[in-house]
Amino acid sequence: MPPRSQPKVPKPRPAADSASPAAGMDELQPMALGRASDEQLMRRAQQGDRQAFALLYERYNGSVLSYLYRMLGSIEDVEAIGQEVFLRAFRFAASYRYPQKFSTWLFTITRNLAINAARRKKRSPVRNITELHLEGVEMSSDPYQVAARASDDPERQEEIARVLRALDDLPQDQKEVIVLGVFQDLSYAEMEQITGTKAVTLRSRMFHGLRRLAKMLSGEA
Fold this sequence. Notes:
Layout: H1 38-46, H2 50-72, H3 75-91, H4 102-120, H5 125-130, H6 143-150, H7 154-167, H8 172-183, H9 188-195, H10 199-218
Helix pairs in contact: 1-2, 2-3, 2-4, 3-4, 6-7, 8-10
């Protein structure tokens, strides 16, 4: 299936290399990108080389779409999730560790997205949010930086970032109770003492806030 368009992606931050300074330098020397291996291209993409990532997109877009089509069977889902695979791969490029096989890393992302898409059709959106286990997640900076500190798993990083972005669009009273109850893992009795609001009201705010948040994350709001 030919790709419709190349995803527009933000420039990734350079990945920290745990190897010695000389490690992998051959892969960063000038070369014709078309002759570079997938792993060499991904290493360049980690340094902000958009052309290298575009070539990886060309090499793997068809395979990713074919895999998703077999898993999901819906053309609309395949196209949307296929774009998300590469957006996520670029956004969290720093989680790739050279010389890990690029195709394995990419199809792990693809598989996780496909499984989650299938599950979302069967499960409550509120349950999806609470099952992220966001207790103790720091919320004071950019959502993607927060997500990167909270987890090494690109799939969970993206879900956390989406929740953090959506939280900002909630009414303040609903956002407050979710932050205290979900992120700080406080009981309703503790929240009542902190906010001066009765627990029954806090429970109502939590319910409506999580339901609204779930709709926002599913694109229904």
